[in-house]
């Protein structure tokens, strides 16, 4: 049937016109387009004479017209082009790159795509090496940046870097991260968990400067601007690190895979600190949270790799994931989800702090926007982690229909989606409150 359709179109000269219209496509994608058009019945209807070819041609050079029939052909053409035609994939990828460049902080104008955060991190590391001519990195213990060799090397979690998989990338230096409630540099936090800057004088940022200075040839500092644990950087930390990077010729790579696109109540977490990275990596939410697409955004000056293939993944130009990302960004903007996350986060953190005042089990409440943490301790002075209580509350909450993640054994990491309503958040926190009450009462009874 299809062969007959194609022969018929060829005989009438229409197939040649059609192929000419797809002249920018590689032969493979021409065939794919024809197959798609055939599946959609378009070729059959052309052969039947039901659709004049000049109308179809308008899809390639649309000057619209206004008939419903034409519009529906255009619609279908757009869908086919997006899903089956390689030029459509390139076009969507271009729109997406432009959109990301437009919304990102500073002058991050060059974009490469990958199918996951780990791969996008590998691209970032390669760009930093090529652009600086250096290979060393400086990153933070306890961070996670992905599962590839490069990402695991800059990551600081034992689970992903120790044992049989070694050795990892040479030159991957680490320092202790900011973690004001449990400062690894030994400085006590204020009672509300905030840093005592008078005393600590940003030891954590000074250590970054110290290592950059001692090494002298670090390509990049790699970090999450807002740690996913979730720890917020002390005020001034990122400005100080940015300064140190600039003074020592190191690039600053921000991994915003979990925080980018609104999670912390700003489109990008680094905007809270008014610090612009040289490279910014996005993933997770970019594909609406369900489709695999990630991106590495770089300053234009870093585009020095020429024809070198930093990524070149089969699906980096995938039209479905590109479309998903564009639609995701559209929804985030149209529905004001960043502002919503900021508002909801302030409300939720207030409520959690109010719970902290009632439950001694809560040692710290921290976070920004919809990236929140509640750290459980059995004693507020010693800060001994209350892992059993954390587990008990976790299962009680699951029984009541509320799910969240526990990090480090005793930190509830609450990261609800941007579309969570005020009512849903209130109900979730009410469940958490009940569970804290229940576990606190049973602990008091036992004591
Ligand atoms: C901070 C951070 N970086 C990188 C990654 C890796 O992303 P992916 O799982 O898409 O490879 C993750 C994933 O959880 C992450 O949280």
How would you characterize the overall build of this protein?
The protein has 447 residues and is an alpha/beta fold. It is globular, with a radius of gyration of 26 Å. About 8% of the residues have low confidence. Helix 12 runs parallel beside helix 13. It has 3 domains: 83 residues, no CATH class; 245 residues, Aspartate Aminotransferase, domain 2 (3-Layer(aba) Sandwich), CATH 3.40.640; 110 residues, Aspartate Aminotransferase, domain 1. The protein contains 17 helices and 12 strands. It has a 7-stranded mixed β-sheet with strand order 1-7-6-5-4-2-3, with helices on both faces. Strands 8, 9, 10, 11 and 12 form a 5-stranded antiparallel β-sheet that branches. Pyridoxal-5'-phosphate (PLP) binds next to helix 8.
What average pLDDT do the residues reach? 85
Oligomer: single chain
The unique ligands bound to this protein are:
pyridoxal-5'-phosphate
Radius of gyration over C-alpha positions, nearest whole angstrom: 26 Å
Task: Give the number of domains.
Answer: 3
CATH architecture of the largest domain: 3-Layer(aba) Sandwich
Strand arrangement in the largest pleated sheet: 1-7-6-5-4-2-3
Query: Roughly how much helix do the residues carry, as a percent range?
Result: 40-55%
Beta-strand content estimate: 5-15%
* Major sheet description: 7 strands, mixed
Topology pattern, helix = H, strand = E = HHHHHHHEHEHHEHHEHEEEHHEEEHEEH
CATH class annotation of the largest domain: Alpha Beta
Distance between the termini: 81 Å
Structural class: alpha/beta
Runs in which pLDDT lies below 50 for 5 or more consecutive residues are: 21-29, 51-78
Number of helices: 17
How many β-strand runs? Answer: 12
**Annotated CATH topology of the largest domain:** Aspartate Aminotransferase, domain 2
